[in-house]
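FAQ: What does a multi-protein file look like?

Like this. Sequence, then tokens, then the next protein.
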Amino acid sequence: MTKYLILTEKPSARRNFEKALGGLSGHFADFDYELTNLRGHVMTLAEPQDQVPDTLTTQIKSWDLKDLPWDLNQFNWKRTYIVSKNPRTGKQESTKSLLDDFKKKASQGFDGIVIATDTDPSGEGDLLAWEAIDAIKWTGPVYRANFVDESEKGLRKALEHLKPILSFQEHGPLQKGLARNKWDFASMQLTRAATTLTKKQGYPFVSRQGRLKSAMILRVYQQLEAIKNYQRVPFFENRYHDENGHTYARSVNKDEAPDFRYTSQEEAQIQETLPETATPVVISTQPKETQPPKLLDLASLSAILAKEGFQAKEVAATYQKLYEAKIVSYPRTEDKTITPEQYEDLRPLVDKIAQTVGVDVSLLTRREPRKTHVQEKGAHGANRPGPVVPSSLEGLLTYGPSAPKIYEVLAKNYLAMMAENYHYTQIKAQLAELPNFTTTINQPQSQGWHLVYQDQDEEEDQTRSTQGIGQQARRFLYEGQNKKPTAPTWKWLKTFLERYNIGTGATRTNTYGELTSGKNAYMIDQKGKISLTDSGLAAAILVQDTYIANPKTTKRVFDIFDQVGRFEMTADEALHSLNVTVAHDLPIMAENVKQLENAIEKPTSYEPKEKVSGEWHGEEVTFNASFSGHRFTAEEVAQLLSGEVITFQAMSKKGKSYTAKGQLAKKRYKGKDFIGFDLILDKKKTRKMKK
């Protein structure tokens, strides 16, 4: 009997498969199986200096602009184990032990390994599985189980339709994920350049740059600058309004400066001789309707919740927990619709979902699939409720603060497509004596889906009214102004990314969450409204006019990854766009950094440390020119470079003088290796001090 080892992405996913199949091992379909799991990525690309021949190590380790850009043809793209701190024990742990267990298990007579990691649009799930399979040097057959969700039905269906993977090179999703992985890794050159330039200018910021985050930071900066530089230019024009509150005005095309707008009240009154009153007349009456809004993605959902104070990072993390509990659907989807099968899966649960979120079931009269929302395409389907329906919203708080609101908004958005269309009558009217003065009134007739869900993306209808036109309109002087730039919000930024079709909803949300959280945040999100921190401002200034921050370039890079997945381009060929980007952007960043002093106050406590360089053990090194208040003399620098131990008088942080003794050594700080003065402690004195 054929026996497969099914590889899942993490323990929670393995447990879902275990429940779907009836055990950790057993028989399913026409094969025996055993389940095992990874813990996300178990391998990572080694440090840049470990990717190249020894002769290039010094250059690749350098953060100096003269050593950039890198020659990526020299890279071997070697991977290594991931070392991280265990949150429970506080100890450093390597993924080697997990891979050793996987290798031992895989050697126990399996006829193939089944990749059962997430089927996500970026190829991430395929990449992390292949990293593990390659690490254990597995040479047997490999299969892919593609599932749209982690429901028992979905997992079983995926295992009934296993897809053989003929080779590493012929697996499209993997090649796509690999291209993205290499591109992002090599783009750290821009982070190094930006950080080096910023620090040389006297600012202690780490300037992280990337194909999506740079575009987002720059767009916010440009909008804030437009607001700062906005100058109000008032105008005056004659309009009419009737006793029912409707305004009659002449139409104005976008960017047009009509001759009936004046710079002062006096000019408006003098230049036009218009009657004080006029008679409104209806010119057309037409029934109209609107369909329910499109289904949400994770970015749209998080933008809605941002207005209530929920941060994007928390929303993304909470949504993931709800997904693992099957309460909501797969988060990292590109789909805008759902399939007929997905619709049918939720059909029996509609009334229960409605009851949980407080929607009147009698409003849900359209139970047949709408063609606008349900189509024979896609994979995971748009974001929606999952097969597990909570008994109450309050009970969801165990998953995270935003969990009740996530489910409420997502469920109401989904249920809206089962409500009737919103119907209204559109009345167009004009003034009998002045026909170019018109108005439009939308009179609601049947609220339909509006009673189920409030569409946050729907333009506010200023013309909605229950009143018909009045009997008489009276002239008044209207004061307007040139349009002020909109304040940047998460919803506004999301719309910008959608316009350029950059990333999925989940990618946008996760990147936004990264930019707005932690002590090194680049943006501040206050109920959806965005401002920049000093480090964010510096990062934005540096990437003006660069390719890395250009939305069209960013979109092109996403397209290139798709091309790799379709075998229209290799992963290595895709890196050419990165080479072009780095070569173009480095000199622009070097010029842009000069603008920082006019934009950000330089920290008084920060002074760039003086460096000295030379050959040490056959390697060109750079290290701090001073230690603990003592500046090394030329003789001491020569002694240190020759490997000698030196002694000098130093000053402690408490202001006490002491004799320092030491030599140059390889050191490590915050995960980075560097060469620096290494103090040799007197063990006897140390023991005496401890006593």
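And here is the next protein:
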Amino acid sequence: MSREPVGTFCLVLHSHLPWLLRHGAWPVGEDWLYQAWAHSYLPVVETLDRLAARGHRDLLTLGVTPVLAAQLDHPAALRAMHTWLADWQLRAHEAHVTDPALATREHRAAAHALEVFERDWRHGGSPVLRRLADSRTVELLGGPATHPFAPLLPGRVRRFLLDAGLRDGALRLGRRPAGIWAPECGYAPGLEQDYAAAGVKRFLVDGPALRGDTAAAHPVDGTDVVAFGRDLEVTYRVWSPRAGYPGAAEYRDFHTYDHTTGLKPARVTGRRVATADKKPYDPDRAAAAVARDAADFVDTVRTRLADLRAPRGRPGLVVSAFDTELFGHWWHEGPAWLEAVLTALPEAGVRVTTLRGAVEAGHVEEPVVLPASSWGSGKDWRVWDGLAVRELVADNEDVARRLLAAVDGAGESAGRDATLDALATQAALALSSDWAFMVTKDSAAHYARRRAAEHRDRVRELTDLLPAGRHAEAAARAATFAAQDDVFGRLDARALRRQPSRQAAPTYSGVGSLA
């Protein structure tokens, strides 16, 4: 091992699901939450705990969106998650008749998950996350309340949702997050001013936003807010639109189910192998593949850092960022791969740290002006503002306009208004970036359209009732909506009121607007 690190590596995991509680079950709905919880959140935290017990600190930067954190803490979700884990055990029992090896493996996994859940998660996700942050095992990132695509929102709505998300993070985690995962890495010039005003010190963009120069963080356009860019050369080694480790023949195949039990009995086998011809999953083969691919990734990171250091004359930075749900949910062996990589990188002479740690280590260089960007297809806004979602974009503009008009029309009040708070919640849920993503990618598009329309229609209903003076009827409907969507107990619509003394936010003249 070198006396001086060849460079610094930051792994960033983005944990996010839209609000799913009480909005359907299978194939899209609450089961999506419980699958990700069982197969990603539990094992990833276990991995971090094991590494921390061996003396590792500042392992990675973990983003947990406020809307996901709300579900991980929700009593109804906690009860249902316990039931889901028990049902997993029962399904494993059913598999014993046809596939004893699968049944044994799944029963052990379900029993272990139940034990971990009852021991560590019984009071919700916030105590788990606080423990990881307080021990400096991870740095936690926050974000806007319901994961909206910020560049397309009016300024007041955008700032309201950012502040609401950061306040919620402070409530759950005991500290206001200093870094955020900007939803979808969506950026437009001027957003850094919002971040600075909200106390945000660092955020993520995709590599092309920095024109591929991701070897350091950069202050953005006259502020002290620094942007980190994903190194796509390294990140795509794991997961890309066309390739990556999870597609290897030895790994468990995500898409092949035993339709009686819902368990997954097969390995990938080959990219063009029909489902009926998939080979049985073999844990020993998979473990060997994990070792192989972890070693390849460590070599890739070290080589990349060495290549960055040579022309620069100083150590560089590699930031690799993924959805947390890749590790365990989509890629069954992902948590084992994480543990192998985070163990081996320091042994290979690479400093492993968080985004905060990278700043502390001096990986901040000259200021930059960033272009409009995202981490979606084309690295622009087409996924959330393209032809496929033209109606959703128009609906979202109407939702935001109605929300602001209702708040402005209510006038000053001494206390909170439950009807306006429920209206703000429904608007926030309608503005989730997930619905446009799912429609554009044709991934459960029917569910996404239904959810977006449901919340849009609730906003319209309330904003039709209020100007008509039908306040009692609006209050009754708002209470019904709030009973189903009790996401944020402290979401206060009064924060949306105009602030006359505030300097106008910068505007962006391209597609959409920051105004």
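Q: Is there any per-entry metadata?
A: Some entries carry free-text notes. For the entry above: Confidence is low (pLDDT under 50) at residues 501-515.
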